[in-house]
């Protein structure tokens, strides 16, 4: 590529001389936005800038033939690995589209090179610097724009030095001066109206937690163990000298703060170090053993619809976030020994509530509700460590902030100043943007689906079609919109048409609109379905058969080399972290297609990486269930995309939401087609539901298991009776096999089932043939207690010799 751009510090004289020293540049329209473009005959490719692709939201794809782009001198090569189909217009008569390589450049947004000139048979007038060609039987003449004589300095025009260039400069120069930039931490933004109030309560926003223990409030963290449970005593993990020294330092620091002390506890769990992103270490405690024998306490969590109803009419919002909230709550006196952890130096126990204990979220919610109870429902919403203050006007809002800060000061709670937001008309709370206009969905939730790349093979079309079909009940005229896309799956050769592209973009847009991303209902359980592949992880959070949000993450760096087990585990942890505000202290169902994750808690020793992930997951209450990958259509579709993958949850549809599944069911799809064309005596279609006589047909979905579970759980009857009750109202091809499998695995039925055969006739005992081969035994009870403490006799008689032994 050859393009030279000249920047002068002073304007040239002469009216026409600018044509001699400047290449062709003008403006065009791309996706409704005005962009700068350049025509350069020395460029071997058409180029679009990374900035334009990002700001305009243009879909990119992997370049079929990646290459390295060199400029006028060595050392500045750029790797080109992506391309995009750019639709642009110039004036009213010229509207065109070209494949352009995506390159990071700041000279312009679009560069038309030799491929454009060759394809459009363009003629260049070197004197006038114009380009002319015939397009759709009309002659098009492109005129250049005169460059501005005023040179403006832009903050973005910074010369970045690559590693290769830096290495070259070091070799060639004797002295190199390097100025390193350090990112500054954002300060708390306080509006001028709230500044005096925040200054008055400066003690509520300290830089660090105060020294010493927090006050002993009415509510402390209780740890009640199951009666008769065996106390764990796990050995400490072996560490390198460097790790051991770091662990010792952190333990001493916690001791100096008064958060821990030495212990004589009969139980102990190991401590270990987990590396943080900045290269430092975080001390963690593997509390799985103590959590396993801890009695779980349930605390009522406010319903989301109740919280939203309270915000009606509010126009001013303030959000407060407590600083290390767990460490501001004491352990109940007498329960400290149950938090003991072990290092090489000795045994220590917590005096404040640590992370990782099973009942810690419940305790934290109880403390916050007790402290702010007078304000909850009036002008305060509390959800764990998030405190939202809402008011109708600024004057009233300042009064409400003062009342809340007075309570925090009285209870000796401190907040993290950098995480607080004061007096704002719009605030992000629990993943939603709340303002005076109402509730809006956070746009970051739908980025994963919006950036889904255009399919390039039949397999990728099927992957997208599987996802879209799964949610077709939410899209009006789904079959009509998807028809051009499904046409691409027919035949041997793959051909992506313009109609298919329009349908693909329309389906993506409809998949990410409000009817799809519904508001979560915290009174119902969440379902989190995760999946992973070699290139990324994906998940979806759903509830009531409707998706709440998508999530995706591409694997990079060392994570690409993770084992299958680690990648699946990482997908679960990242999905739970992403939706922590939904799942924290909520019992949810976690589906994964990797069966070995179910045995995580039975491992005697785990690696530091697994310990970190496991310690984080112990804050949550969930049921881990396995789901085969072939049935995991939604998450598997997103996780196996080429560039982007997202997080999803399994669906448990109700009776009103599985009608659209008949057409995609391997058994009922043909029956549905036959019923629509000709009346079938065996099957009939009523209001979108398929019936076989009086039996409702159930397509392949998790509702089948739910039906069996409900019917069998009513009385835990046997296999045949359960099958009879299910077949009385429902039908599907594998109904017998699924009922048998479920009943055989029901532990309640296995324990309580009666004998299947009647007792036979009494038979005489066999006659013994030699001494001490056939014995009879009995007990004589209720005798007076002897001096040795015996009150019974154990009698053993040999049936052959009649010899007896009496044993006290």
How would you sum up this structure, described in words?
Residues 255-434 form the Reverse transcriptase domain. It comes from Acer saccharum (Sugar maple). With 808 residues, this protein is of the alpha+beta class. Among the domains are: 18-142, Cathepsin D, subunit A, domain 1 (Beta Barrel); 200-207 and 301-332 and 358-440, Alpha-Beta Plaits; 446-511, Reverse transcriptase/Diguanylate cyclase domain (Alpha-Beta Plaits), CATH 3.30.70; 527-536 and 555-639, no CATH class; 659-752, Endonuclease III, domain 1, CATH 1.10.340.70; 775-807, no CATH class. It is built from 23 helices and 34 strands. Helix 12 packs antiparallel against helix 13, helix 12 packs across helix 18 and helix 21 (719-727) packs antiparallel against helix 22. The longest helix has 17 residues, at 241-257. The model is unreliable at 1-13, 149-158, 181-186 and 640-653 (pLDDT under 50).
Strand order of the largest sheet: 1-2-7-3-6-5
What is the CATH-assigned architecture of the domain at 18-142? Beta Barrel
H/I helix tally = 23
Give the beta-strand count: 34
Category from helices, strands and their pairing: alpha+beta
Explain the layout of strands and helices.
Elements: H1 18-21, E1 24-30, E2 33-39, E3 47-49, H2 50-56, E4 60-69, E5 78-90, E6 94-103, E7 110-112, H3 114-119, E8 123-125, E9 130-135, E10 138-142, H4 163-172, H5 195-200, H6 241-257, E11 260-262, E12 269-275, E13 281-285, H7 288-292, H8 304-310, E14 316-321, E15 341-342, E16 347-350, H9 360-372, E17 380-383, E18 386-391, H10 394-410, E19 421-424, E20 426-429, E21 432-435, E22 438-441, H11 447-450, H12 458-470, H13 478-487, H14 498-511, E23 527-532, E24 536-543, E25 546-554, H15 564-578, H16 580-583, E26 588-592, H17 608-617, E27 622-626, H18 633-639, H19 668-677, E28 683-686, E29 689-692, E30 695-697, H20 703-713, H21 719-727, E31 730-731, H22 735-744, H23 747-752, E32 775-780, E33 793-798, E34 804-807
Parallel strand pairs: 2-7, 3-6, 12-15, 23-26, 26-27, 30-31
Antiparallel strand pairs: 1-2, 1-5, 3-7, 4-5, 5-6, 8-9, 9-10, 11-16, 12-13, 14-18, 14-19, 15-16, 17-18, 20-21, 21-22, 23-24, 24-25, 28-29, 29-30, 32-33, 33-34
Helix pairs in contact: 12-13, 12-18, 13-14, 15-17, 20-22, 21-22
């Amino acid at each position: 590529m050859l393009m030279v751009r000249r920047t002068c510090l002073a304007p040239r004289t002469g009216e026409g001389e600018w044509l001699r020293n400047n290449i062709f540049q003008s403006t065009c329209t791309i996706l409704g936005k005005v962009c700068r473009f350049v025509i350069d005959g020395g460029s071997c490719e058409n180029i679009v800038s990374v900035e334009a692709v990002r700001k305009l939201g243009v879909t990119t794809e992997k370049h079929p033939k990646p290459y390295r782009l060199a400029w006028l001198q060595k050392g500045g090569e750029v790797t080109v690995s992506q391309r995009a189909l750019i639709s642009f217009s110039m004036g009213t008569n010229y509207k065109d589209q070209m494949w352009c390589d995506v390159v990071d450049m700041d000279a312009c947004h679009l560069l038309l090179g030799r491929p454009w000139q060759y394809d459009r048979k363009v003629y260049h007038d070197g004197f006038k610097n114009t380009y002319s060609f015939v397009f759709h039987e009309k002659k098009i003449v492109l005129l250049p724009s005169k460059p501005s004589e005023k040179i403006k300095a832009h903050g973005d025009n910074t010369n970045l030095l690559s590693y290769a260039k830096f290495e070259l400069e070091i070799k060639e120069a004797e002295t190199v001066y390097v100025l390193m930039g350090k990112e500054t931490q954002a300060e708390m933004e306080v509006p001028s109206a709230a500044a005096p109030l925040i200054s008055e309560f400066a003690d509520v926003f300290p830089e660090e937690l105060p020294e010493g223990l927090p006050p002993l409030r009415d509510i402390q963290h209780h740890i009640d163990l199951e009666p008769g449970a065996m106390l764990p005593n796990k050995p400490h993990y072996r560490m390198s000298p460097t790790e051991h020294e770091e662990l010792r330092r952190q333990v001493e620091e916690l001791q100096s703060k008064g958060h821990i002390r030495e212990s004589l506890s009969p139980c102990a769990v190991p401590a270990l170090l987990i590396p943080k992103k900045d290269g430092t270490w975080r001390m963690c405690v593997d509390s799985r053993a103590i959590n396993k024998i801890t009695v779980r306490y349930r605390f009522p969590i406010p319903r989301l619809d109740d919280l939203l109803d309270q915000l009606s009419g509010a126009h001013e919002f303030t959000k407060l976030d407590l600083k290390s909230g767990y460490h501001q709550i004491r352990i109940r006196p007498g329960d400290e020994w149950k938090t003991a952890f072990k290092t090489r130096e000795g045994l220590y126990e917590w005096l404040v509530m640590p992370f990782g204990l099973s009942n810690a979220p419940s305790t934290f919610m109880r403390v916050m509700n007790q402290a702010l109870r007078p304000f909850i429902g009036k002008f305060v919403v509390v959800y764990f460590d998030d405190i939202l203050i809402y008011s109708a006007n600024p004057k009233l809002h300042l009064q409400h902030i003062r009342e809340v800060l007075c309570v925090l000061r009285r209870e000796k709670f401190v907040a993290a100043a950098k995480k607080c937001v004061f007096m704002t008309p719009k605030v992000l709370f629990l993943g939603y943007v709340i303002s005076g206009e109402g509730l809006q969905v956070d746009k970051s939730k739908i980025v994963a689906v919006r950036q889904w790349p255009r399919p390039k093979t039949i397999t990728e079309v099927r992957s997208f079609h599987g996802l879209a079909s799964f949610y077709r009940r939410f899209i009006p005229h789904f079959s009509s919109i998807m028809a051009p896309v499904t046409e691409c799956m027919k035949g041997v050769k793959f051909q992506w048409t313009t109609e298919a592209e329009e349908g693909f973009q329309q389906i993506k847009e409809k998949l990410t609109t409000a009817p799809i991303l519904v508001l979560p209902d915290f009174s119902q359980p969440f379902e989190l379905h995760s999946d992973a592949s070699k290139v990324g992880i994906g998940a979806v959070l759903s509830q009531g058969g409707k998706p709440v949000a998508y999530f995706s993450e591409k694997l990079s760096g060392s994570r690409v080399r993770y084992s299958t087990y680690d990648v699946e585990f990482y997908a679960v942890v990242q999905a739970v972290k992403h939706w922590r505000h939904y799942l924290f202290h909520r019992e949810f169902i976690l589906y994964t297609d990797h069966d070995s994750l179910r045995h995580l808690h039975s491992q005697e020793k785990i690696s530091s990486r697994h310990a970190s992930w496991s310690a984080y997951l112990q804050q949550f209450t969930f049921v881990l269930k396995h789901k085969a990958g072939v049935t995991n259509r939604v998450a598997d579709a997103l996780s196996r995309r080429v560039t982007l993958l997202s997080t999803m949850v399994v669906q448990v549809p109700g009776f009103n939401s599985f009608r659209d599944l008949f057409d995609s069911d391997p058994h009922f799809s043909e029956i549905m087609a036959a019923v629509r064309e000709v009346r079938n005596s065996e099957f009939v279609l009523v209001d979108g539901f398929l019936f076989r006589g009086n039996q409702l047909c159930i397509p392949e979905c998790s509702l089948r298991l739910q039906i069996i579970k409900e019917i069998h759980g009513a009385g835990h009857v046997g296999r045949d009776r359960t099958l009879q009750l299910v077949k009385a109202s429902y039908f599907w091809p594998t109904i017998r096999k699924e009922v048998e499998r479920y009943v055989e695995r029901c532990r309640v039925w296995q324990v309580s089932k009666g004998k299947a055969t009647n007792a036979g006739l009494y038979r005489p005992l066999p006659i013994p043939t030699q001494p001490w081969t056939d014995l009879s035994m009995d007990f004589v009870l209720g005798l007076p207690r002897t001096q040795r403490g015996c009150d019974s006799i154990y009698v053993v008689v040999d049936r052959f010799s009649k010899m007896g032994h009496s044993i006290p």
